[in-house]
Amino acid sequence: MESNIRSYKGIAPKIGNSTYIDSSAVVIGDITIGDDVGVWPLVAMRGDVNHIVIGNRTNVQDGTVLHVTHKNKANPDGYPLIIGNDVTIGHKCMLHGCTLGDRILVGMGAIIMDGAIVQDDVLIGAGTLVPPNKLLESGFLYVGNPMKKARPLKPEEQAFLLKSADNYVNMKNDYLGL
């Protein structure tokens, strides 16, 4: 196993088909990465005290940190990090113990905290802070610190969510020489 993709306590990451993981990214422990995923430079994923699941055709851009919350008496399941399909996670984001559905764009520098749930088809603006245990409803733009529901997505924004995933699948294919 490559030095940037490592086991933790005997649990190794599971990597899907046609997935690109940059050599400067670090992927440790109980992590499952789907097919056609792009993990870009300086991403840190640590599945050490809980698990991380990343769906198909998702991209995790430069400098993003993905982590989880440990299991304890007050919260027996802790907070794993679950990310759906066709998700674009912008540069320098922090996702910690949250759940993201499908066709989501997380703007650059956004932070999504423990227990937050983002339904399908959501756009999260750059720099947005999603506090713990918030629910972001499908079909809306969220912005701010702390986040607020700004407005329904326009049809072209809705279409862009999948187009963004397509663009990054094509880019990771270029990097893989496919």
TrEMBL record:
InterPro entries: LbH_gamma_CA-like, Transf_Hexapept/Carb_Anhydrase, Trimer_LpxA-like_sf. It comes from the Bacteria. SUPFAM superfamilies: Trimeric LpxA-like enzymes. This is Gamma carbonic anhydrase family protein. It comes from Thalassotalea eurytherma. The lineage of its organism: Bacteria, Pseudomonadati, Pseudomonadota, Gammaproteobacteria, Alteromonadales.
